[in-house]
Amino acid sequence: MKAVQFTGTGGTDVIEYAEVERPEPGPGEVLVDVKAGALNHVDVWARRGLPGNDLSYPHTPGCDGAGVVEAVGEAIERFAPGDRVAVWPGVSCGTCEFCRRGEPSMCVEYALLGEHLPGVHAEYAAVPEENLVPVPDGVDWATAGAAPLVFGTAWRMLIERGDVSAGETVLVLGASGGVGHAAVQIADHAGATVFATGSSEAKLDAARDLGAEHAIDYEREDFADRVRELTDRRGVDVVVDHVGAATWQDSLRSLAKGGRVLTCGATTGPNPETSIGRIFWNQLQVIGSTMASPGELDRALELVWNGEFEVEVRETLPMSETARGHELLESREGFGKVVLVPDSEL
Ligand code: ZN
Fold it and tell me: Residue 116: which of 59, 58, 39 has the closest Cα?
């Protein structure tokens, strides 16, 4: 079978679509005939190489995917050949203090398929049973393959960790990215008034279509100034900032007194200057969030499957053109998810 492979760490030239041996499902595993997957920034980080993440090469990337159950290993009860499934990449130990508390994404041994473990951007992938979610008939493969990571992550960040509620004001930075476009829809669903930033008129229109009341072009104006102007100098209750170093100070400046900044990533870098004075004087909260619990994922995906939330696809590429997909993410071109499909399925 064919699989996307990283031959080492580095630029997009380490990406290949190569012939590899088809995996067999081990005990507790399900073999999935992959119909679609999606790229996430974590794929880019894994390709560039993360300190302390010692992968063996060639490495199969891919956190997001969906397809049909081809075969099951021993002791599988929830799934049978022919079932439609989507993949969740989080793998937890089940026994540490945090797993026992019901917080698997805080697991001391937390790992992701595709980042620390072999991923699913291949014609077939062997996946632990607990990492699969049923996909109803009628949901297309691009939606099923691109929804889990960004909608699960954004749901936990906004609803569980951030406690976003009706009547609040929420600013979502980088609304054209996967997590950003999910966060706009989730905040709107929660009854908040949504402010979104983007870098082109097309991206701002797309954000408005998904529920943003105010869309701000951050390349043409200072978004924090604009937010303060739109809120009569008050600021917003919540800022969703997965951009990081480039936006952090302006995120703090956009918040009302007592506001919360939610972060699940830092695509422009993790070490910004910060204003401690602003944090204590305005009594701000900085709230981190990563991934989701299975229950949080189920809740978010239920709303994707029933059409309440839309997965926007910026481009669908054959897996043999994965390098082009990485370039799209790195250049911030387009709105929504880059979907990858095995060449044999096109
Ligand atoms: Zn654990």
Answer: 59
Q: What does the alpha-carbon distance between residue 327 and residue 181 come to, in Å, rounded to a whole number?
A: 19
DSSP H or E stretch at residue 88: none
| Residues 6+ away with beta carbon under 8 Å from 110 | 90, 91, 92, 104, 291
Distance 36 CA to ligand 1 centre (A): 29
Residue 307 CA neighbour count, 13 Å, CB half: 3
Q: Which CATH number fits domain 2-149+292-345: 3.30.2350.10, 3.30.1330.10, 3.40.50.1980, 3.90.180.10?
A: 3.90.180.10
Give the residues of the chain that fall short of pLDDT 70.
none
Calculate helix-pair angle for 141-155, 178-189, nearest 10 degrees. 70
Q: How far apart are CA 263 and CA 229, in angstroms?
A: 24
Per residue in 135-167, pLDDT (tens digit) is 999 999 999 999 999 999 999 999 999 999 999
Q: How far is the CA of 104 from the centre of ligand 1 (A)?
A: 6
User: Which residues make up the CATH 3.40.50.720 domain(s) of the chain?
Assistant: 163-288
Fold of 163-288: Rossmann fold (3.40.50)
- Those residues whose beta carbon sits under 5 angstroms from the ion ligand 1 are 92-93, 96, 99, 107
* Coil, strand or helix at 48: helix
Burial of 199 (0-12, 13-18, 19+ CB in 10 A): middle
pLDDT of residue 7: 97
Residue 332: predicted pLDDT: 86
pTM of the model: 0.97
pLDDT value of position 308: 98
Query: Among all chains, which residue has been given the structure tokens 């062997």?
Result: 126
Helices (H), ranges, the chain: 41-48, 97-100, 141-155, 178-189, 201-209, 223-230, 248-254, 276-281, 294-305, 322-330
Ligand 1 geometric centre to CA of 57 (Å): 26
Summarize pLDDT for 286-309 with one digit per residue, the tens: 999 999 999 999 999 999 999 999
